[in-house]
Amino acid sequence: MKIGNQHYRSIWFDEQSQHVKIIDQRWLPHQFKIVTLNNRDAFIAAIGDMWVRGAPLIGATAAYAFYVQMKKDPSHQSLDQTYDLLLATRPTAVNLRWALDKMRALLTRLSENQRPQAALALAQEICEQDVERNRLIGVHGLGLIKKIATTKSPGERVNILTHCNAGWLATVDWGTATSPIYHAAQENIHVHIYVDETRPRNQGAHLTAFELAQQNIDHQLIVDNAGGHLMQHGDIDLVITGTDRTTGSGDVCNKIGTYLKALAARDNDIPFYVALPSTTIDWALSNGIAQIPIEERDSLEVTKIWGKLDNGTVAQVQICPDNTPVANPAFDVTPARLVTGLITERGICEASKLGLAKLFPEFVTN
Amino acid sequence: MKIGNQHYRSIWFDEQSQHVKIIDQRWLPHQFKIVTLNNRDAFIAAIGDMWVRGAPLIGATAAYAFYVQMKKDPSHQSLDQTYDLLLATRPTAVNLRWALDKMRALLTRLSENQRPQAALALAQEICEQDVERNRLIGVHGLGLIKKIATTKSPGERVNILTHCNAGWLATVDWGTATSPIYHAAQENIHVHIYVDETRPRNQGAHLTAFELAQQNIDHQLIVDNAGGHLMQHGDIDLVITGTDRTTGSGDVCNKIGTYLKALAARDNDIPFYVALPSTTIDWALSNGIAQIPIEERDSLEVTKIWGKLDNGTVAQVQICPDNTPVANPAFDVTPARLVTGLITERGICEASKLGLAKLFPEFVTN
Predict the structure, then answer these.
(1) Phi-psi region of A216 (alpha: psi -120 to 50; beta: other; left: phi over 0)
(2) Are residues A96 and A228 in the same domain?
(3) How far is CA B101 from each of CA B79, B106, B170, rounded to the nearest angstrom?
(4) pTM for this structure?
(5) Average pLDDT over every residue of A244-260
(6) How far apart are CA A138 and CA A184, in angstroms?
(7) C-alpha distance from B229 to closest chain A C-alpha (Å)
(8) A235, pLDDT greater than 80
(9) Distance CA B12, CA B23 (A)
(10) Which domain CATH number covers B73?
């Protein structure tokens, strides 16, 4: 998608320099920085410290890490170590493990001198597939938005709530939850997006509001507390979020607070959809609340908030007394019963084992 | 309650200087400032710009404004004007109107030269009554906490979630939601409070975390998004919040986001109680969502966050792109059906007309 009218992806292989480059998302929206990831440690830091984030993008980034490491040391030991180090960076998103498994399965079969180029080719393929999956999510999700648009008076907008950033910056391009929105805008449907700021890291305020502004999509930033009130007053037609891991039974693990919005959507009879490439599905799991590990992140994410001072420099402010104890779970699980449907690259299905089996029969066992 | 081991109220008449003083809560927890309110404009600013906040404290502050203004101009016109100006400061909390009505009813009957002293006496009485009501809320609410404590193993704590600041800083003393907590602590029950930071103004992080730390109450700060996840995992035994206005039918209007926590409590079979002095009940209303005006506040509350820089000075940081559009509703309504019970100065009742009628028969008409 576009930043300042130029097209970008969130990660790419620069043919000229032969380097992997990313947008360092820690500084958005206040500073736009492109960073080269030159060695494995840089990749580990980029994922662990969230220079890149979003389940699909984490998977794509991990894939490129193999290319960089295989160029340096294509040994089996190096391969295994890379797998383990990357897997440990973030515990919740399942795309990470999916990409690592795919990469190790391929490289293990090859001789050492074949590994660097094969790793690069597979990383690039993973990226291209991600872009295509997200494009298809948009095509399928567009139908939902179109249907709501037909119920509106001329000039009336379709109001969509989203949480966190499931935008193109969370994927390689298009985004998951935002892909239907971008497709609707391309068809000149007036969509208005309520953007949850998404504490603690404010990815809604930092990234989604930035993305939508760059694409000229009508939006308003709200605090995470406001969505229920807006739903009670008829201000939301549709909720679309992303997911970091989806169980084979349709439970959805996504950024902390998603569950609260799903409850409010149900209480107000508002459709609550989750957009995902099938790579975020953990087919082996059947109970998200019991089975998905929830990352507990640094308390500084809660006590200090990062932003731009009036003088234009960026800084952190502490919002609580010194030494305030903190709990900081990064994700929560929305049970399948609260999810109206899953928007995937193969179409929209019920959030259930049966629903998923209809679209992905090859993954579902009895 | 205590700040640095010294006892304070949130507002008081200083006999020595004959002035009304408040804690200017805009600077907590980073700076502790006591301010004298010398004239009507100062009172209007103090309420409108939230130097003081919390429904009971707003009422008490408005009452003292009459004393200051009657000293200056005890005319009928001045009285009416003061009523109107104060009523316009904050639209949601009903204690404001309650205190204004009480004050005008008294002063109208008196001669001009009687008015200043009578206003002072009534303002002080309103404060004393608020303290006593909140103390009684604590006595009644203590029973709920004690009952949960009996279900715990030795050494296990009672986990309570609260939203915003319904602490002593929101009242004259004791607080509403915190009064049962302070009473439990006095009886050596180990309570652990999960404190919602409560965006946009972060009164949980600024005030509740500060209050609890000063009282040595075990607590953890969390983002507003986290409560549902904690409930899903059995980490919350009880939710207690305050309210800015309660309908005669038991609907509760409180700081934005309260409704989301009530939904999560219901979904996880966790008791959700609301603590209130009867002065926050608007007996005439029967449908909170339709009838209670919700204050829409400045977008700067959402886009900029105030706190302490690493160098110790305080500043605001902007968390979103320049010119991001914002919606900022300050309160939401939790329907009575989601409220387990109301903790009042007369006891605990069902959140319904019938429940309230049992405790407050004199206010309920058929």
Answers:
(1) left
(2) no
(3) 11, 9, 21
(4) 0.96
(5) 97
(6) 8
(7) 5
(8) yes
(9) 9
(10) 1.20.120.420
Please indicate, yes or no, whether residues A147 and A47 belong to a single structural domain of this protein.
no
Query: In this complex, is the C-beta atom of A290 within 8 Å of any C-beta atom belonging to chain B?
Result: no
- Whether the per-residue pLDDT at A93 is higher than 80: the answer is no
Give me the pLDDT at residue B366, please: 62
Q: Is residue A366 part of a domain?
A: no
**Residue A263 pLDDT level (bands cut at 50, 70, 90):** very high
Helix (H) or strand (E) holding A184: helix A178-186
Name the token pair of B241: 């919040």
The structure tokens 């690039």 sit at A124
Choose the mutation target among A216, A230, A306, A319 for the interface with B, i.e. most B CBs under 10 Å.
A319
- In which residue are the tokens 């003081």 written? B52
**Among A210, A246, A251, CA closest to A336:** A251
Per-residue model confidence (pLDDT) at position B181: 98
Residue A34 touches partner B, C-beta closer than 8 Å: no
Together in a domain, A117 and A244: no
- How far is B260 from A13, CA to CA, in rounded Å? 43
Sites in chain B below the pLDDT cut of 50? none
B24 close to B42: Cβ distance less than 8 angstroms: no
| Chain center to CA of B261 | 17
- Is residue A145 located within the same domain as residue A118? no
Q: Which residues are registered as beta bridge partners of B299?
A: none
Contacts of B211 in chain A (CB under 8 A): none
Task: Report the number of distinct structural domains present in chain A.
Answer: 2
Taking only Cα atoms into account, the Rg of chain A, rounded to an integer number of angstroms, comes to 20
- Asked whether residue B353 is assigned to any structural domain, the reply reads yes
State how beta strands B34-37 and B158-162 pair: unpaired
In the stretch 209-268 of chain A, residues with CB closer than 8 A to chain B read: 209-210, 213, 219-230, 232-233, 255-257, 259-261, 263-264, 267
- pLDDT of A366 > 80? The answer is no
DSSP per residue, A320-345? S-TT--B--B-EEEE-GGG--EEEET
Residues near B239 by beta carbon (within 8 Å), at least 6 away in sequence = B160, B161, B162, B163, B227, B261, B262, B265, B270, B271, B272, B273
Which residue among A209, A219, A320 places its CB closest to the CB of B221?
A320
The verdict on B298 touching A (C-beta cutoff 8 Å) is no
Determine, yes or no, domain membership for B223: yes
A50 and A117 together in one domain: yes
Give dist(CA B329, CA B165) in Å, integer. Answer: 17
